[in-house]
Design goal:
The chain has seven helices and ten strands. Helix 7 links the parallel strand 8 and strand 9. The chain has about 220 residues and is an alpha+beta fold. Helix 3 crosses helix 4. Helix content is about 30%, strand content about 15%.
């Protein structure tokens, strides 16, 4: 058996993510490209938001507020123009409001349902080798069409390659495809033995092991 990142790191991660208790669904990059990134027959390799999913979830999660496609598009346009990560995280925590007409009050816009059956009311999509311009992040996780986690996989079978190489990759991507990290919650560097999370571009000593799997009691506390 040959060892490579796809077989020994990416595929096991994607398999774990699809367990019922975690609730992620998987679509390969070609399916994601055809269903969510193609407009009038042209693929937008610069766009990182999965706009069809995002538009639909905006309407699903904001009944009485986002009542039509036009209002959903107003939110989408606001989000597409947003480049500040801290502002993005406020949107993701449902802390932001919008005014949709001059005679209406500002209203909270929910991007994620945290309270009412989150596993079923949100769209959790995992994909891999997602092309953004000339880059191919290894595993990307989207919630309701928004990229929130980038997992960069490396293989220890090639010698002294460690999880840090994945962390360094996110630093390069932060320069080459910064739009991927506007809405980013965190990134992961991983090989067959180590998995740590951190911020793109941060030094290795600031990346940490995720030690608390709550509420997933089936996972050992120190099982990376």
């Amino acid at each position: 058996m040959s060892f490579n990142e796809d077989k020994t790191v990416e595929k096991p991660i994607l398999k774990d993510l699809q367990k019922p208790e975690l609730g992620w669904r998987y679509e390969d990059a070609k399916a994601v490209q055809d269903k969510y990134r193609t407009y009038n027959g042209v693929v937008d390799f610069n766009e990182v938001l999965l706009l069809p999913i995002l538009r639909q979830k905006l309407k699903d999660l904001n009944p009485g507020v986002i009542t039509n496609d036009e209002r959903a598009e107003m939110v989408v346009n606001r989000l597409r123009a947003l480049t500040d990560n801290q502002e993005w995280l406020k949107w993701l925590r449902n802390e932001k409001t919008m005014q949709f007409a001059v005679d209406e009050q500002y209203q909270t816009v929910r991007l994620i349902d945290y309270d009412n059956d989150p596993l079923n009311n949100n769209d959790f999509l995992a994909t891999n080798q997602f092309i953004i311009n000339s880059c191919r992040p290894d595993v990307l996780l989207f919630i309701n069409g928004i990229p929130v986690i980038d997992i960069e996989a490396k293989t220890a079978s090639r010698g002294k390659i460690t999880w840090q190489e994945g962390a360094k990759q996110t630093g390069r991507y932060a320069t080459e495809i910064p739009q991927l990290y506007y809405s980013n919650a965190f990134c992961i560097g991983v090989n067959e033995t180590r998995m740590l999370y951190g911020v793109p571009g941060a030094r290795a000593q600031f990346w940490q092991q995720w030690r608390d799997p709550t509420p997933h009691t089936h996972i050992n506390t120190f099982d990376e």
